[in-house]
Recover the amino acids of this structure.
């Protein structure tokens, strides 16, 4: 192998990109990865999944100590917040995780190239450094894994100080007295929860008439009640048409979606969380003849674009914008390039919201099954009837399993409750193997444990729950 000639070159070192490079190297292919950030891991590890989960955890611990311990007989009368130390903890988590990715690159002998990657032609990748110097390397195969960026909102200009994206919301120097969150999706509710727990008065503004778009409607309705209990304000069916900044606050113009009189929402900090869009800037797609579809790069069933040897995975190809989905696509495409068969069951990819209680969804929602005309049985079990949840003092929520009425095959699972993101993994495995609700119901679950709620919901799908 020459220094500038590789079997696989990956552009983008997020979860999809670096995993694709690792799998390619494991399969005996020479691999290089191009990344413009000085640290690897992409948005997820640097300014997304990992730092947000660190703050979600620490803010949850603070809130529990401040407001929840007394009911359990734990006296914590002088609980205080050291935001600087909390942010340092978050940064430490990010730093350690990024170092782990660096180690994996060295372990797997993957060449790391710092700079912005572009594709002047099939088989070639140009890497341009921050100093403007460029070099072109040869690539037997190219994988585009450049991820996504923040979707802007017309009339609301992000400055990462008063009007922030998710990146700025992870770096606020102090707890704002008031915060307005535009968007009631995963990012908006997670980061809104963080600052609400730390003392901010949070109002969430959503264009649709419900929170968590795309989730099962029953889960969404229950979550709305939970957010209100947590004193997070909701302005649904509302659109933000403009923002005016003063030295100390931002005033948003908010109108009803259906029409009507506009109102103003004033906040110290505004978080714009209306979604993410594929990042394809500077890749040279036009020169390759690749035309994005609604911003996304079109690929075939093997993740290959219309240009032979040029592949794409993750957020840039659409579908669920999830790190674990991108990782699995990275593994699949590396295996395909190596002559193996890579496959992903997109119905068996969980989506998780790390609020508290957590929310997790898998497979089809009730609304989707009804629209498709599929007959199904519903099994539900509330955490109020689960002994472990009662012992923990976390009884909000339920498990819901949707099973085919004729075959009993699990079609969808939706959980709102403690550790929902962990509980749903059992159901992911069952769905991957084409399993039934009866398979879950017949599996022995440890007592007392939160997973028993999953078993009981599966039993209920057959009309025979034991504890309700």
């Amino acid at each position: 192998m020459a220094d500038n000639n590789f079997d696989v070159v990956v552009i983008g070192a997020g979860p999809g990109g670096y995993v694709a490079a690792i799998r390619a190297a494991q399969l005996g292919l020479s691999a290089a990865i191009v990344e413009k950030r000085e640290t690897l891991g992409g948005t997820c590890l640097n300014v997304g999944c990992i730092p947000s989960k660190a703050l979600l955890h620490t803010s949850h611990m603070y809130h529990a100590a401040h407001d929840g311990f007394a009911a359990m007989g734990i006296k914590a009368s002088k609980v205080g917040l050291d935001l600087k130390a909390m942010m340092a903890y978050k940064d430490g988590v990010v730093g350690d995780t990024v170092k782990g990715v660096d180690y994996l690159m060295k372990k797997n002998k993957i060449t790391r190239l710092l700079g912005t990657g572009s594709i002047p032609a099939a088989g070639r990748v140009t890497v341009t450094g921050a100093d403007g110097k460029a070099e072109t390397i040869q690539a037997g195969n190219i994988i585009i894994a450049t991820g996504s960026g923040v979707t802007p909102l017309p009339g609301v200009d992000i400055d990462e100080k008063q009007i922030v994206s998710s990146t700025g919301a992870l770096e606020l120097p102090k707890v704002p007295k008031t915060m307005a969150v535009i968007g009631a999706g995963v990012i908006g509710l997670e980061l809104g929860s963080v600052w609400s727990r730390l003392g901010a008065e949070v109002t969430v503004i959503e264009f649709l008439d419900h929170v968590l778009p795309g989730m099962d409607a029953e889960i969404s309705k229950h979550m709305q009640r939970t957010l209100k209990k947590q004193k997070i304000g909701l302005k649904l069916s509302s659109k933000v048409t403009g923002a005016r900044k003063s030295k100390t606050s931002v005033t948003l113009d908010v109108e009803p979606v259906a029409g009507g009189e506009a109102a103003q929402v004033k906040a110290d900090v505004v978080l714009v969380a209306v979604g993410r869009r594929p990042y394809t800037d500077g890749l040279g797609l036009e020169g390759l003849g690749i035309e994005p579809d609604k911003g996304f790069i079109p690929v075939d069933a093997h993740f290959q674009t219309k240009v032979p040897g040029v592949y794409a995975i993750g957020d840039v190809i659409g579908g669920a914008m999830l790190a674990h989905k991108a990782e699995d696509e990275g593994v699949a495409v590396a295996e395909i390039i190596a002559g193996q068969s890579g496959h992903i069951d997109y119905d068996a990819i969980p989506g998780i919201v790390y609020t508290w209680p957590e929310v997790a969804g898998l497979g089809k929602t009730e609304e989707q099954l009804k629209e498709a005309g599929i007959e199904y049985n519903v099994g539900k079990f509330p955490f109020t009837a689960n002994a472990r949840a009662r012992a923990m003092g976390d009884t909000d929520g339920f498990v819901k399993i949707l099973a085919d009425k004729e075959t009993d095959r699990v079609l969808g699972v939706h959980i709102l409750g403690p550790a929902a993101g962990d509980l749903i993994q059992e159901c992911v495995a069952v769905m991957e193997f084409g399993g039934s609700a009866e398979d879950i119901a017949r599996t022995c679950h440890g007592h007392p444990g939160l997973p028993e709620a999953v078993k009981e919901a599966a039993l209920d799908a057959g009309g025979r729950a034991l504890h309700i």
Notes: The two ends are 65 Å apart (CA to CA). The CA atoms of residues 69 and 75 lie 7 Å apart. The first strand starts at residue 5 and ends at 11.
